[in-house]
Amino acid sequence: MARTSTASTVTGSSTPSQQSPSRCTTTETPVRRPALNRLREIMRDIHARCHDTAEEYGVTGEYIAGASIAGFRQVAEAMLAHGLI
Q1: 29 part of a folded domain
Q2: CA distances from 39 to 3, 48, 81 (A)
């Protein structure tokens, strides 16, 4: 028996306007308050870590540099903890 499907089904490339209304729930589902509060907390922690790391390395106000350095340190610490370096 031959199996048929559309390209959008196989590749998953259909846009929301092409999908059935039952699959598009982004505007129908309200964000729950606890989830939103948790997201705010995570974003504040990320901001603080980037800010503090940038200050520590003498590039105050450079959030991208702070984020890069903080991320590098986190990976390096994990590698040390696992005995990889």
Answers
A1: yes
A2: 43, 14, 28
59 and 66 in contact (C-beta within 8 Å)?
A: yes
State the virtual CA torsion across 51, 56, 61, 67 in degrees, nearest 10: -50
pLDDT in tens, 42-75: 999 999 999 999 999 999 999 999 999 999 999 9
- How many structural domains does the chain have? 1
Distance between CA atoms of 10 and 4, rounded to whole angstroms?
A: 10
Q: Are 50 and 70 in contact (CB under 8 A)?
A: yes
Whole domain around residue 20: which residue ranges?
A: 16-81
In angstroms, what CA-CA distances link 65 with 30, 33, 44, 47, 85? 35, 32, 17, 12, 24
